[in-house]
Design goal:
By secondary structure, the protein is of the alpha/beta class. Helices cover 40% and strands 13% of the residues. Helix 2 runs antiparallel to helix 9. It is globular. The relative contact order is 0.17. The structure holds 4'-deoxy-4'-aminopyridoxal-5'-phosphate.
């Protein structure tokens, strides 16, 4: 008998992001990667070395090291001006581990989970694997919420609604007014908000994106150090949720992973104690300039419409006048040797777009956008 993946796995495949990245050649300019190019901040590195030297190489508790949880609790307390306790935090293997932990613990067959129609594919896939139904809610052409559509999708089977602000792949941020409206809906209709805040420190305006945790207790926050500290490989994420919701997730964390890496947990202390503040400020200022540049360049290409990014490091132009997202991304790869991500990776509605990451060296970004312009300007003849 050949060993086959269980039936719930049918239709589940490596993401289009990974598939596209696999096509990159050595000399391809890669605008497809979801991480900062910077090396790890020195303070985080130092803490990692310290962990090895002081023997912090054993299991931590399933919930994660108390020291780090206290620091995470303090970070969210300060962000929301309300007390969050270390008991409400679980350290996970990246934000992805946090998402798996939540959905694995709470989603039952036939539960529904509302997901933005353009979204990071992981929410959908994990929900599917639990036998739950992911229901997309509409975003308008500027990627704002369509509350009429959302209301029409709320029913007694809805357990969760996912938001991700700043957003992958659109780079947009939900307004405080909209987040407050969603929190009211969660109260009224008895569901919980999963707030994926992995990009929350990378915003270009004056105000930090508003977290629903600041106005509601019906929230499970997903966050981590991957993006803010250029630390995708350390695999440190976390959840923040009321204590009674956290309890079963600690059990799940035990059976899924025992605990996140103790060395990485120790290193992560330096990403939250203020030692990385200047690093994050520098990264943000840099991304803001690059995001504005990419926006200005793309806006002037005939046939493209584009929304200005407000955070994260992605821009998501509408290229639908040229073809489907996969055709366009493949042709840009073939003709210009630039790797972008077809928007279909983020759901069907994303098929009008491609995602470009502008977290690359400025000279490279300029060259990439020039080549994309040339390719699109000569579209009919190539
Ligand atoms: N949420 C979003 C929206 C992401 O883009 C990513 C990573 N690309 C994650 C969660 C997972 O992050 P981590 O590396 O911490 O698992």
């Amino acid at each position: 008998m050949s060993l086959k993946a269980k039936s719930s796995f049918s239709g589940v495949d490596i993401s289009e992001i990974r598939k596209m990245n696999a096509l990159a050649r050595k000399d391809t300019i890669n605008l497809g990667i979801g991480q900062l190019p910077d090396s790890l901040p020195q303070a985080v590195k130092q803490k990692g070395f310290e962990a090895f030297e002081s023997g912090q190489t054993r299991y931590t508790s399933n919930q994660g090291s108390l020291l780090l949880r206290e620091q995470i609790a303090l970070y969210h307390s300060e962000k929301c001006h309300k007390e969050i306790k270390a008991e409400e935090v679980i350290i996970t293997n990246g934000a992805e581990g946090a998402l798996w932990n939540i959905l694995f613990t709470f989603l039952e067959r036939d539960d529904q989970i509302l997901i933005p129609e353009i979204a990071f594919s992981v929410y959908n896939t994990i929900a599917d694997l639990q036998g739950a139904k992911a229901v997309p809610y509409r975003q308008d052409s500027e990627f704002s919420l369509d509350f009429d559509d959302l209301m029409s999708k709320i029913n007694s089977k809805v357990k969760f609604l996912v938001i991700n602000s700043p957003n992958n792949p659109t780079g947009t941020i939900l307004s405080e007014v909209d987040v407050r409206k969603l929190s009211d809906l969660a109260d009224e209709h008895d569901f919980y908000i999963i707030s994926d805040e992995i990009y929350s420190e990378l915003y270009f305006g004056n105000d930090r994106p508003f977290s629903p945790l600041c106005c509601s207790d019906r929230v499970l926050v997903v966050d981590g150090i991957s993006k803010r500290a250029a630390a995708t490989g350390l695999r440190i994420g976390w959840t923040v949720a009321p204590e009674e919701i956290t309890k079963p997730m600690i059990v799940a964390n035990q059976y899924i992973t025992t605990c996140a890496s103790s060395v990485s947990q120790h290193a992560a202390l330096a990403s939250l104690d203020g030692s990385c503040d200047s690093f994050v400020e520098q990264v943000k200022a840099d991304l803001k300039v690059k995001g504005e540049y990419a926006y200005r360049q793309l806006k002037t290409i005939d046939g493209i419409s584009v929304v200005k990014p407000e955070g994260a490091f992605y821009i998501f132009p509408d290229i639908s006048t040229f073809g489907t997202s996969k055709d366009v991304a493949l042709k840009i790869l073939e003709k210009a040797n630039i790797l972008t991500i077809p928007g279909i990776a983020f759901g069907e509605r994303g098929d009008r777009h491609i995602r470009l990451s502008f977290a690359v060296d400025f000279v490279i970004l300029k060259e990439a956008l020039n080549r994309i312009r040339q390719t699109l300007d000569n579209w009919e003849s190539i």
